[in-house]
Structures are given as C-alpha cells and as structure tokens.
Design brief:
Blueprint: H1 7-15, E1 22-30, H2 34-51, E2 55-61, E3 76-82, H3 85-93, H4 95-107, E4 108-116
Antiparallel strand pairs: 1-3, 1-4, 2-3
Helix pairs in contact: 1-3, 2-4
C-alpha cells in the first residue's frame, strides 16, 4: 500500500489554487512498532511545518469505526493546515524534510493524504 505521494500527484496538487490555504487530512496505519518512528518523525518535522507556515490542528488515535468497511479503520488521524499548496510543495521538496520523511515512510503500512478546502456559505 502507498504511504507517500508520487511526483505526478504532487505536481497536480501544486497547480490547484496554489495560493489558497487548505487542510490536509492524514489517515495513518502503523507498521508493527511504527508508532515510535512516526512520533520521532513528528518531532523532527515540526520545524519544517513551522518554517513553511503549517499548523497541526488535530492529532488523535482512531477508535472503533461506526461506519466503515472491513479494513477501513485507522490507527491515527491528523489535520494539518497549510497556508498554500505552494508552501506545502516547497516543504515536501526541501532536502532536510525529505530526509526526515523517511521515518514516516518506515512507520506506516498505509496512509491517506487528502487535501481539503472549506465549504463556503451560500447567501440567503
């Protein structure tokens, strides 16, 4: 299963409203003993997140899924706000971040990274 986005997807993301803020939904499934590696990744990646204007909004453990197919429960959920797709793209291209992200890759057996944009209120 994939745990890291490929270049083609990252290039496509960068072209979609590059200056608009967004929130990235992270759904994570840890490898055996992967939580410790992911926690180390989180500690080291925090500096890059700050450098590129990102903000961790929420992190929590998954619990019993109320509506899900077999295998759709996740070990952890994170919400991370980025000031723009351009800032996110610069962060993941940063050589220092790429080195740190190896910890993340080793920690996970499966992941979903889903960029989200807020719904806008309709007048009336």
């Amino acid at each position: 299963m994939a745990v890291d986005p490929d270049r083609t997807v990252l290039q496509k993301l960068a072209l979609q409203s590059p200056g608009e803020p967004f929130v990235m939904l992270n759904l994570l499934r840890f490898a055996t003993d992967g939580r410790a590696s992911y926690e180390e990744y989180s500690r080291r990646a925090a500096a890059f997140l700050r450098q590129y204007g990102g903000e961790l909004l929420y992190v929590g453990d998954g619990n019993t899924a109320l509506v899900a197919e077999e295998g759709q429960a996740w070990d952890a959920v994170l919400l991370v706000r980025y000031p723009s797709r351009e800032a996110f793209s610069r962060m993941v291209a940063d050589p220092g971040y790429r080195e740190v992200s190896r910890l993340r890759s080793r920690a996970l057996t499966e992941a979903v990274l889903q960029p989200t944009t807020p719904w806008t209120r309709r007048a009336g």
